[in-house]
Amino acid sequence: MAISVGDLIRYIVTGTIVLVLATFGLKVWNKQKLEKQIIKELRDLAHPATSFEAIYADDGKRALFKSMGLLHKTGAELDKEPVEI
Question: Over the chain (85 residues), what is each successive 10-residue block's mean pLDDT?
Fold first, then answer.
């Protein structure tokens, strides 16, 4: 029993559509996961014990630069302004 050409084309088109939808879904899911991770890290950095108001200057500078890096990552990888997060 040979498969008909029409069935073969239908299976190929259906498989392609499923593959495209799965790829798109994974991209959206990874962006949401990255956004949640950035928000969590920024909240941790905003805590008074780890913020720029830290007791030691080096800790404050480290927190400040890490915050700046996360805000840049927001614009570069998520295509969002820091205000949107």
Answer: 89 98 97 92 78 71 87 86 77
HSE of 5, CA atoms in CB hemisphere, 13 A: 0
The DSSP secondary-structure symbol of 83 reads G
Name residues whose C-beta falls within 8 Å of residue 31's C-beta, 6 or more positions apart in sequence. 78
Q: Are 75 and 81 in contact (CB under 8 A)?
A: yes
Q: What is the dihedral of CA 21, 22, 23, 26, to 10 degrees?
A: 120
Q: Where are the domains of the chain?
A: 5-84
- pTM of the predicted model, to two decimals? 0.69
